[in-house]
Specification:
CATH architecture: Distorted Sandwich
CATH class: Mainly Beta
Largest sheet: 8 strands, antiparallel
Pfam families: Aldose_epim
Number of helices: 3
CATH topology: Beta-galactosidase, Chain A, domain 5
Number of strands: 20
GO molecular function, one term: carbohydrate binding
Protein name: glucose-6-phosphate 1-epimerase
Order of helices and strands: EEEEEEEHEEEEEEEEEEEHEEH
Bound molecules: 6-O-phosphono-alpha-D-glucopyranose
Active site: 167, 271
Organism: Cocos nucifera (Coconut palm)
Structural class: mainly beta
Helix content: under 10%
């Protein structure tokens, strides 16, 4: 008799890299690689994949995995002296066997706790001591929750500052069928125009060319509506005021070695982030940033797709 698969399973993934599979009772699942502390799969209770991972993704250090949810820390993008998006996505994280307690109301018992601490080598690149704890949890029903807790453990009395993003790649039917709600009328920095500041116009955001924008002071809830798939992603966030929206489009897609030429049509990055105002921690201080992803079927007929309800409910 086949035994039921465990809710939390440690196993080997592509190229023998360690990964953890989470499964909740109704059939939802997620996969997390210790390499990068990176979620690479999130499936709903029907077994449908919600995240995009490139068919050309290289699951091999030191290249970050192209897709899923890379963690950008301690630097987002090229906004600083470190490598693009910082080093957390290129490190092998460990299982945190004894994490400090979470609030009693964290609804899930299907989760894994990871931890990243600097090695002596890392210290030369970023001379700070820290503990980065990441909990990846599946709620009953399949919502995916990521909680990052970053603590300054410097013993030299020095504060440090960082920027951060959950660089989520959503899987979508077709980029021309998708719109993002919750960011209209906000200010953004345009990465395609030397980070110049603009104000978004119009009702909702749709896509017809390359986009790489950092929206500032965004609401805690953003919706990504996929008309063809009849599915809406709802991203809820806490501690992360900014939101990056990125699609490389055809020209940049061709320039990315680990990304298929046409794959830009089937992905959209919407990234809960803290970029404009870096987070500063004194020794002993801890910062917390949460992202929660859920889906709402658009065929659902109780008015849940009313943008006002999606965004305020
Ligand atoms: O190629 P990567 O280093 O993974 O970065 C991919 C993209 O990430 C973010 O969305 C940035 O805003 C983009 O400027 C960048 O191109």
């Amino acid at each position: 008799m086949a035994s039921a698969k465990p809710p939390v399973e440690h196993c080997k993934g592509i190229n023998g890299l360690d990964k953890v599979v989470l499964r909740e009772a109704r059939g939802g699942s997620a996969e997390v690689y210790l390499y990068g502390g990176q979620v690479t799969s999130w499936k709903n209770i029907h077994g449908e994949e919600m995240l995009f991972v490139s068919s050309k993704a290289i699951f091999k250090p030191p290249k970050a995995i192209r897709g899923g949810i890379p963690i950008c820390f301690p630097q987002f993008g090229s906004h600083g002296t470190l490598e693009q998006h910082g080093f957390a996505r290129n490190k092998v994280w460990s299982i945190d066997t004894n994490p400090p307690p979470f609030p009693a109301n964290s609804a899930s018992n299907t989760f894994v706790d990871l931890i990243l601490k600097p090695s002596d080598e890392d210290f030369k690149i970023w001379p700070h001591s820290y503990e980065f704890r990441l909990r990846v949890a599946l709620a009953p029903g399949g919502d995916l929750m990521l909680t990052s807790r970053i603590r300054n453990t410097n013993t030299d009395g020095k504060p440090f500052s960082f920027t951060f993003a959950y660089h989520t790649y959503f899987s979508i039917s077709d980029i021309s069928e998708v719109r993002v709600e919750g960011l209209e009328t906000l200010d953004y920095l345009d990465n395609l125009k030397e980070k110049e500041r603009f104000t978004e116009q119009g009702d909702a955001i749709t896509f017809e060319s390359e986009v790489d924008k950092i929206y500032l002071s965004t609401p805690t809830k953003i919706a990504i509506l996929d008309h063809e798939k009849k599915r809406t992603f709802v991203l809820r966030k806490d501690g992360l005021p900014d939101a990056v929206v990125w699609n490389p489009w055809d020209r940049k897609a061709k320039a990315l070695a680990d990304f298929g030429d046409d794959e830009y049509k089937h992905m959209l990055c919407v990234e809960a982030a803290a970029i404009e105002k870096p987070i500063t921690l004194k020794p002993g201080e801890e910062w917390k940033g949460r992202q929660e992803l859920s889906t709402v079927p658009s065929s659902y007929c109780s008015g849940q797709l009313d943008p006002q309800k999606v965004l305020q409910g």
